[in-house]
């Protein structure tokens, strides 16, 4: 069992080679070549956007892509790309209504 399967609120994961081939996967991302291609393209794009922000000798540590109800977290380690899709817990917002106080 991979450690990725034990991440809280994880609903899918991918482990990719540097060139984007799927090594292992599970959950919502099982054998998801489309997401693998998008993530690989995103990583390639980071080095082309701004060399000062993304130096070639200093690669990123983590990329987070956040949606309303889920997010993708992308990390590089040991020449592999790790992608985890996590469910985001809904944030409840308290609505406070003011009531007028009338002294009689």
From TrEMBL:
One GO cellular component term noted in the UniProt record for this chain: lysosome
Record's keyword annotation contains Membrane: no
Localisation: Lysosome
Superkingdom assignment: Eukaryota
Entry's transmembrane regions: none
InterPro entries: LAMTOR4
Keywords assigned by UniProt, alphabetized: Lysosome
GO terms (BP aspect): cellular response to amino acid stimulus; positive regulation of TOR signaling
GO molecular function: guanyl-nucleotide exchange factor activity
Family: Belongs to the LAMTOR4 family.
Name listed for the protein in its UniProt record: Late endosomal/lysosomal adaptor and MAPK and MTOR activator 4
């Amino acid at each position: 069992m991979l450690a990725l399967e034990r991440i809280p609120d994880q609903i899918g994961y991918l482990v990719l080679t540097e060139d984007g081939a799927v090594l292992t996967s599970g959950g919502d991302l099982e054998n998801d070549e489309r997401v693998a291609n998008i993530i690989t393209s995103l990583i390639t794009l980071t080095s082309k956007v701004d060399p000062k922000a993304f130096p070639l000798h200093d690669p990123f540590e983590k990329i987070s892509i956040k949606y309303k109800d889920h997010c993708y977290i992308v990390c590089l380690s040991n020449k592999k790309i790790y992608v985890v899709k996590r469910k985001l817990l809904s944030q409840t917002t308290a609505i406070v209504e003011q009531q007028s106080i009338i002294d009689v």
